[in-house]
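Order emerges. As here.
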Amino acid sequence: MLEALIHSLECVAILSVLAAVGYFTAKLNWYDAAARSLIARLVTFVSLPAYLYTSVMEGVTREDLIGFAGPMVLPFVSIWSCFLVSRIVVRAAKIDRMHSGIFSSAFTATNNMFIGLPVSLALFGTDSVVPTLLYFFANTTFFWTMGNYLEAVDGAEATHGPVVPVFSLTTLKRVFSPPLIGFLGAIVMILLGLSLPEWLMTSAKYLAGVSTPMALIFIGIMIQAIGLRNIRINKDLAWVFAGRFLICPTVCLALCLVWPDLDPLFMKVYVIQAALPCITQIAVLAKFHHADVKFATTAVASTTVFSAATLPVWMILMTAVI
């Protein structure tokens, strides 16, 4: 138990140092809006897809893929169960209807790529890449369908405008984001028995190497931009905290414990992914749909900061239970 505590604290310290680099360099005014956008684009469109592709190609075999059918279902069941809980909370706790859709997205969807992948690598090593990606697939599918739709409903509520459909070409493009395409591309290559030329694979590895530090530096930049002083915890936000750090990981843990023949590593990764802060895109979508941007931004910032305290607790619990 003590060893697990020390390891968890060390991992959080590593993540905190990298995020602090972004935070304090941002305080020195190193980044304007264009620079922040550039970093996010480099991570999302270049380094993360390269990382996911190379990691899967080197760590997964065709035989492994056959065994992923069962474990792949669990994140979907967990995420949609938590979504149903969020809708119950909306009614029971009388969440403000002007941001009830944002609330459900914040309650349910996690920051699976920007924070989840670096956290998994720090806690569990490279073997955690595949279960992290399986959770990512379920998480991003939920967010860009139901989450996107509910935030659009919030925007329509605020502006008295029309509500966009749940399924559209735009939604499809967002679900199949560059990181997911990198992951699926590797799966296709493995199934076909193909591989990239060595020089191209090496180039992809170099690009992949910057993904984790760049993603965490970006998180620090965004926390500084939002401002720690602007975080105010009200009733609705307190329920977001309960969802992110208590209800969702508990639901996921319960499912993991009853799921047949689930690898212990998959269990640990899934629960940690379920205990991460809110997905950052809730703020982007809130602005796009003219919904409650302040609530979305505050949810992202506050849960990101608070996760530094909750992740070690869940890591220790995982070590004790699994």
